[in-house]
Specification:
62% helix; mainly alpha; 16 helices; 336 residues
Length: 336
C-alpha cells in the first residue's frame, strides 16, 4: 500500500478539527475590541476557554492549546516525525533556557525553570535531569554532541551569542534532517522554506546593526533553497534590491512584495509576516488532497500562526497599537 494511503484517516480527522480553528472574522473581532479584557472575552468564547482559568495568564492558555494539538495529532498521525518537526524548536528553546540558567548559577544567579515550555518533544523534567547530570547520550536532534560543545565554549570564552548561534544551526540542521527522512516532498519544501525565511530575517537584522559582511555567513544556516554563499553578498545591497537578486527563488519572489522604504522598525514586522505567509503557501495546496501527509504540516503551521496572531492582538491592546497597524501584522493562517 502506498505510504500516502495511510493518511486518509488522519486527513479526515483534520477536516473534523478545522471548524475549531479561528477564522479571519474572529480575529477581526479581537482587533476591534476596545481593550484587553474585551479581546480576552472573545477568546473565551472559543475552544481556548478550556485553558483560561481565573487569574491565569493568556500565554499559558495559548501554550496549552498548542500542546493539546500536538498531543492529539500524535494519537492518529502515522509518522510521529510530522509532529516532532514542530516540536524541535521548542526543545532547543528549553536547552537555551537551561544552559543560561546553569551559567547564571555559577555566578550566584538563580535558575529560571519557569521559562521552560511543554511544547518540545522532550519533557522539561527529563531534559532538566539529563542536563544537570550531564547525561546527554540519549538526547535526540544532535544535542548529545552540541551540549558538551556548548559547555566547552562557555569555559573558553563565555560567549553566549556564539553558543546561541551554534544551537540555532543545530536546530535547523535537525529540522531539515527530519524533513528529509520523512520523504514527503511538501514537508521537505516547507522545511527548506523555514530555513530560507530565517536566513533572510537574520540578514536584515545583521544589516540593521552594522554587522560586517565577512561575519554574516556564520549566522546563516545551510539546507535552504538559497545557498549561504548567495545570501552573504546581499549585505552590501539595500533591502529593496534583495527580491530582484533572489528572483530565481520562491523566497525572493515572496520578499519582493514587501514595500520599499521605511525604517527597520517598519520593515521588520512586514518582512516577518511575509515570510510566515510564504511558509504557509508552501503547504497550502495539501488541503485539496484527501490523503496528502502535508495536511498535517499545513494544519499545525496554521495553528501556530493562529496563536501568533492572537498573541499579537493581545500584546497590541497593552501597547495601544493602532488597529490598522495590527491588521498589517496578521498572518494569513490556515484559511488563507
Amino acid at each position: 500500500m502506498p505510504r500516502n494511503d495511510a493518511y486518509g484517516y488522519a486527513v479526515a480527522r483534520i477536516r473534523a478539527l478545522e471548524p475549531q480553528l479561528f477564522d479571519p472574522s474572529q480575529l477581526q473581532r479581537m482587533i476591534d475590541a476596545d481593550d484587553s479584557d474585551a479581546a480576552l472575552k472573545i477568546l473565551a468564547e472559543s475552544g481556548y476557554a478550556r485553558w483560561m482559568n481565573e487569574g491565569a495568564r493568556y500565554d499559558s492558555a495559548l501554550e496549552a492549546e498548542l500542546c493539546a494539538a500536538f498531543d492529539e495529532f500524535a494519537a492518529f498521525v502515522p509518522d510521529r516525525g510530522l509532529i516532532d518537526i514542530f516540536r524541535i524548536p521548542y526543545d532547543f528553546h528549553n536547552v537555551k533556557v537551561l544552559l543560561k540558567s546553569a551559567f547564571r548559577a555559577r555566578t550566584g544567579g538563580k535558575k529560571r525553570y519557569d521559562l521552560l515550555t511543554r511544547l518540545g518533544s522532550i519533557s522539561p523534567d527529563d531534559l532538566v535531569s539529563r542536563m544537570e547530570s550531564e547525561e546527554y547520550g540519549l538526547l535526540p536532534w544532535g544535542l548529545s554532541v552540541l551540549l558538551p560543545s556548548c559547555a566547552s565554549m562557555w569555559e573558553q570564552n563565555a560567549d553566549i551569542v556564539e553558543i546561541e548561534r551554534v544551537l540555532d544551526s543545530g536546530m535547523f540542521a535537525a529540522v531539515i534532517s527530519l524533513a528529509d527522512s520523512l520523504e514527503f516532498p511538501g514537508v521537505i519544501s516547507w522545511g527548506r522554506a523555514r530555513i530560507d525565511s530565517e536566513n533572510i530575517r537574520n540578514l536584515l537584522r545583521m544589516k540593521r546593526f552594522g554587522f560586517d559582511a565577512s561575519a554574516a555567513a556564520s549566522f546563516l544556516h545551510g539546507g535552504g533553497t538559497v545557498t549561504v554563499a548567495a545570501l552573504v553578498p546581499l549585505m552590501s545591497d539595500q533591502f529593496e534590491a534583495w527580491g530582484r537578486s533572489l528572483a530565481y527563488s520562491d523566497v525572493g519572489a515572496a520578499i519582493s512584495a514587501v514595500e520599499a522604504g521605511g525604517d527597520f522598525d517598519e520593515q521588520m514586522p512586514a518582512l516577518e509576516r511575509t515570510l510566515d505567509d510564504f511558509c504557509s503557501s508552501v503547504v497550502a495546496n495539501a488541503r485539496y488532497s484527501s490523503t496528502a501527509p502535508e495536511n498535517i504540516t499545513a494544519y499545525l503551521w496554521g495553528k501556530e500562526m493562529e496563536i501568533k496572531n492572537i498573541r499579537t492582538i493581545l500584546v497590541s491592546k497593552g501597547t495601544k497599537t493602532n488597529r490598522e497597524g495590527v491588521k498589517g501584522m496578521m498572518r494569513r493562517g490556515y484559511f488563507g
